[in-house]
Model the fold of this input.
Amino acid sequence: MFSPSWRLLGGTTGAFVMAALVAGCGGGVRNSPAEGVGCSVTVQIPAAGSALLGTVTARYLGQTRLLTRNTTTIELGCGQQATLAATAADPGSHPFTHWNVAGTNSAASRVTVVADGLITAQPSFYVAVKPRQVAKPSPTARPSAQPSATPSTVVLDQWLTYDSATKTATLKLEAGYGQVNHTLSFDGEYNGALDVTVPVGWTVVVNFSNVDTINHSAAVVTATGTTPVFAGASIADPAVGLPPGSHASFSFVASQEGNYRIACLVPGHEDAGMWATFDVTASGLPKIHL
Done:
């Protein structure tokens, strides 16, 4: 493990340029035993309720991309850079305030980050704190009992939450979301770009919705198989799929370490890219990579 340190490379009008000084970067875009520590920039956009407070325009490797998700990971070679520009969704009520990149703040709305490790960047927006309304108890009212347990649910993204106390991960899976890849996608990703990881022995609950206009399904399989690898790890009749507008949930125990897929088994759909990566690891906590 390492802790990035930051230095200011040089300022331009309205921009703040930072780089991480980290030794041992392997030059790849992900962690792996073969490549060592990879490099990426993960952008986390805060939300108020279900609505994001803004968007981020990312420029890197000669392309421009509008980020409209809670969490987006930009994979870069080590030493490459990404320029991030934050725009408030409602400047009147929730104006942009600052960027936070690995604990370093900048008031500029545009920052350029040079990747040398796994970096997190988050724009912040002003949110007014509403005064608490304290109800006066009636003379005969008894105080309500206080909860005895501390909530253990962690929200990683709009798609994945987990409860460490019960060792349960809950995945929201939408087929056809955003009409990506001609609607042959899960949660707006295809060809394994949606990467979900859970520890071995955890229970996984999949809440599956078909928001497309054709049938889709979901099943946890191997890269070459069509039979669910865990008991219960599929909707019913995955080769037929759910009709448009339908919902179904299934749950299973991830009882064996390995690298699997969540695939749509309606004929032709998986071959066209409608599958997500599903990894079961020996330890750790659930995580999602988009």
Observations:
- The first strand starts at residue 5 and ends at 8.
